[in-house]
Amino acid sequence: MADYTNFTVETDADGIALVTWDSPGRSMNVFTEEVMDELDKIVDQVVTDDAVKGVVITSGKKDFSGGADLTMLKRMTAEFARLEKSDKAKAVQFLFENAGRMNGLFRKIETCGKPWVSAINGTCMGGAFELSLACHGRVASDADHVKMALPEVKVGLFPGAGGTQRVPRLANTQEALQMLTSGQNLSPKKAKGMNLIHEIAPADRLVEAAKRMIADGLKPVAPWDEKGFKLPGGPVYSAAGANLWPPAIAILRRETYGNYPAATAILKCVYEGLLVPFDTALRIEQRYFTEILQTTEAAMMIRSLFISLQELNKGARRPEGVPDTKFRKIGVLGAGFMGAGIGFVTAKAGIPVVLLDRDMESAEKGKAHSAGLMDAAIKKGRATDEDKEKLLSLITPTVDYADLEGCDLVIEAVFEDSEVKKSATEKSEAVLKSSAIFASNTSTIPITGLAKNSKRPKNFIGIHFFSPVDKMMLVEIILGKKTGDTALAVAIDYVRAIKKTPIVVNDTRGFYVNRCVLRYMAESYQMLIEGVPAPMIENAAKQAGMPVGPLALTDETAIDLAQKIMKQTIRDMGEKAVDPEQFKLINTMVDDHGRHGRKNGKGFYDYPAKPAKKHLWPGLKDLYPQKKPEDVDVEELKQRFLVTIALEAARVMEEKIVTDPREADVGSILAFGFAPYTGGALSYIDGMGLEKFLKLARHLQKRYGPQFKAPKLLSDMEKKGETFYDRFDPYAKEQKKAA
């Protein structure tokens, strides 16, 4: 056998070739051009070698494979864009041929005449699972970390290497559609139940089980290549099909509002593909995949939700030259809901944590929060009693600041009061080593001001979590004017250690995320004042791609908190800083009607006892004269929500509060769910194009007010033909260094 860079091939005495995938220099195997070239050669060699009776393919790493390297797709689409400038037809043909490369390789394996078995030893995603589906047998390890999925829809694509055709030919059509359109992870048990794998084997006998399948006479023919094959879910044109397809289309529309072209393409691929022979079905899939690759949604989602997200998670903004931090002990001040959540995620990362509060009862209650979260995980089968015991052993509740001694990092999450925070800072620094970092979880008070309470402002930083801490994946790291590189590096190391995504923000009122969220909420208040019916406001926001309506979001964060923020803003910046009509609305809700939000069961919504569901408060329609629904332009409502947030993100970039567009985009999606199909708040502008966006903003400004006034930065960028990723190129330093 030939030597390969990414594979080893060993044939045993029974004539079974074990192909082990272990790409050098990578923590996980991924499909690259080189990997596909080598796999193609391996297929040719095992087919022509009479001594080889069958092939088992597995991984030499902990996981099987993460699928295709999406940077490969990025290169492909970049070449498409270059070709398109001179010859559109040639460019599309290039894309079509390249989109079918992996599909052709997998079909070659499937029809090579010798049995292939995939021995899935760990995470098996995307193209790697499609490779497995093309094998004649599939065995998965019973190890806890094993999961399989076709998650491409989450980055604006769909399984384009046979996934949309093999899955519904193996599984029930309804389950297949649900899996493909959601990108859900499958456990080995779930995958076997769907008929997507054949066996589950002990981890140490996985390859043995795979080889046994071949020795037992595994046929080297896929089910759909055999005469008389019948679809497990029944034909499209059948009673079963008539009951499935109309609801499936309606459900997808309800879930996506037509914002995700890839999800729609999946339904088309499956529907059309199941009507024709398999090879024709693969061509249909290839055609749709080529079409989706050309969409703005795919380009923006791949950039933000795959490439940028990975880069930020790997510490793209970490200062160079600062040694990595190995956390031995972390302190959390305040054991309330936020502090308890911070304590939980810290302990979950295996780091000992001291949870300090003013009395032992409060500190113990904070630890009990972690116990409750673990109990819920155990109930769902995601954790064991041993996991719970181990995690709780890492949390030490206390009232004594002396217990902070030896902490590498202390995170303050006490009451949002400058004096309380001042006291906590001073008491902590009295026992901390000089190199320790002190961080505040404040959401409203500027870090530079809080750092004045510290004797070592270089070591003072903001680490702003979002609620609930255990579920929200974003953390804002806020730099004060005197914050040093070491503090920033330690903060990023900590956020990465707890497996969340860090974005770096310079100091300002509301930082980045809250500034955008407050614009979202404010626009909904404005709509209420205009007489737009509340249901239309909430539904328009969801149709625009937001996961939660702005009125529901205000309830979750508390209407009386919105009132406090408005009052504080007026005190700090004057009455003109807050819209008087909006202030009046919030005061009416809180002071006249006692509606504080979800926390007291009364807000923009009513929250009846379970099992009844929340519903909009009927009294909202009595606050202002109501417009007739037919007089409201729903499309314009959707635009108002997206544009007001995008404009605020642009202002934040203009003010140099955020300096990296990757952080603005990823932050807007992870923090408050800014329409993921756009790629984020700045990519929404870039994707639309500045000329079109500015025209829309001017139209909205004329009709609805100064909140839609575009910052000078945008008109300057339009004149120069720039995008945000041109103007604020996050890779400029790397390119300069390489040069």
Please describe what this structure looks like.
It is a single chain. This protein is α/β, with parallel strands linked by helices and 739 residues long. It has three domains: 7-294, 2-enoyl-CoA Hydratase, Chain A, domain 1, CATH 3.90.226.10; 330-507, 3-Layer(aba) Sandwich (Rossmann fold); 514-726, Orthogonal Bundle (N-(1-d-carboxylethyl)-l-norvaline Dehydrogenase, domain 2), CATH 1.10.1040. It is 50% helix and 10% strand. It has an eight-stranded mixed β-sheet, sandwiched between helices. Strands 1-2-3-4-6-8 form a six-stranded mixed β-sheet, sandwiched between helices. The mean pLDDT is 93.
For this structure, what is the CATH homologous superfamily of the largest domain?
2-enoyl-CoA Hydratase, Chain A, domain 1
Per DSSP E runs of 2 or more residues, the count of β-strands stands at 18
| Class of secondary structure makeup | alpha/beta
Regions with pLDDT < 50 over 5+ consecutive residues? none
Q: What average pLDDT do the residues reach?
A: 93
What CATH architecture of the largest domain do you see? Alpha-Beta Complex
- What is the CATH C-level name of the largest domain? Alpha Beta
Total of helices: 31
User: What's the N-to-C terminus distance?
Assistant: 40 Å
What's the CATH topology label of the largest domain? 2-enoyl-CoA Hydratase, Chain A, domain 1
Tell me the fraction of residues in β-strands, as a range: 5-15%
- Quick one: biggest sheet? 8 strands, mixed
Please list the strands of the largest sheet in the order they lie side by side: 11-10-9-12-13-14-15-16
**What radius of gyration results from the CA coordinates?**
28 Å
What percentage of residues falls in helices of 4 or more residues? 40-55%
The gross shape turns out to be: globular
What is the domain total for the residues? 3
